[in-house]
Design brief:
Elements lengths: L1 H47 L21 H40 L6 H10 L5 H15 L3 H4 L3 H26 L4 H9 L4 H12 L1 H17 L2 H7 L8 H6 L9 H31 L1
Helix pairs in contact: 1-12, 2-6, 2-9, 2-12, 4-10, 6-9, 6-10, 9-12
Length: 292
């Protein structure tokens, strides 16, 4: 009996040791991942708050004599017009692409008509066209064949950019909404149809109210895509008074004699703040939409 008790004790100690090592390894991995994701953010924040960004290690906080907000105020004054232009660009481009994607997905999912599969294939194919493949045709289209900027001046380029982002965003929003609408019970739609509701009435009274979580997903996704875009903005528009924030952000703090690390880091945080705000506002709906 004494031998059995000794064996059991040894087994328990060994088992606990393995569990302890596993837990230590788990915690170490979690801490390493947290550092991996947060250290660049902490380094950028500390750099933006130092009067001399190269005077100490980048991830060390500034001392009392080296602490400053001047980079943040300079960056905001230089990016202010770009931020306004980005809001003028991103809000309509996001809302339009989400709404058109929603109503198109409804037509391609819940309605019955000929050639539906062919149209769906064309829309889905648009997802796989890379940005680089359409840059030159798109710039020539707006410059030669449909120059809206000739009618509305410099800010007409923002309209061209909005239309480009809406056209490019519709395929992915359509796919997201179609996945969501396939789970809506057909009996409910058939009952509404028997009650005399039209196709648009069914969309407005049934489909649209049920689409809140997926609208949150598409709004966050599309807003982030449009807000962070530099390629379309640089090719279609270029630097100018109507350019979105990504263009002046790319030029911020650059000079022939110095690299303004502090103002660049502050500008990056200021430019990224609206996308963070959108995530916070629609976070719950986004999680619900992703889970469905």
């Amino acid at each position: 009996m004494a031998t059995d008790s000794s064996d059991t004790s040894v087994f328990d100690v060994s088992n606990l040791s393995r569990m302890g090592y596993s837990r230590i390894l788990l915690y170490a991995t979690v801490v390493a991942l947290v550092l991996l994701y947060l250290l660049p953010i902490e380094t950028g924040l500390m750099t933006s708050l130092k009067s001399d960004a190269l005077g100490s290690l980048p991830y060390f906080p500034p001392g009392p004599s080296g602490f400053t907000f001047v980079h943040w105020s300079d960056a905001f004054s230089q990016l202010a017009s770009g931020l306004i232009n980005s809001f003028i660009l991103a809000i309509p481009a996001t809302v339009l692409s989400a709404f058109i994607g929603s109503i198109t997905a409804y037509g391609l999912t819940n309605l019955t008509w000929r050639y539906k599969a062919a149209f769906l294939t064309l829309f889905i194919a648009g997802i796989f066209i890379p940005y680089q493949a359409v840059l030159i045709p798109l710039s020539q289209f707006w410059a030669i064949y449909f120059p809206i900027h000739n009618l509305f001046g410099t800010y007409g380029q923002l309209i061209e950019l909005i239309i480009s982002h809406v056209a490019y965003g519709i395929p992915i929003t359509l796919l997201l909404f179609r996945t969501y609408y396939k789970d809506i019970p057909t009996e409910m739609l058939e009952a509404a149809e028997l009650d005399g509701a039209s196709a648009f009435g069914i969309y407005r009274r049934i489909i649209l109210p049920l689409s809140g979580p997926m609208f949150a997903v598409t709004l966050i996704y599309q807003f982030t895509q449009v807000w962070n875009d530099l390629l379309f903005a640089l090719v279609i528009m270029g630097p100018g008074p109507a350019s979105p924030v990504t263009i002046p952000l790319a030029q911020l703090g650059a000079s022939l004699t110095n690299v303004g690390f502090g103002i660049r880091m502050a500008g990056a945080f200021i430019a990224a703040f609206p996308t963070l705000l959108v995530y916070i506002m629609f976070g719950d709906q986004f999680a619900e939409g992703v889970a469905t």
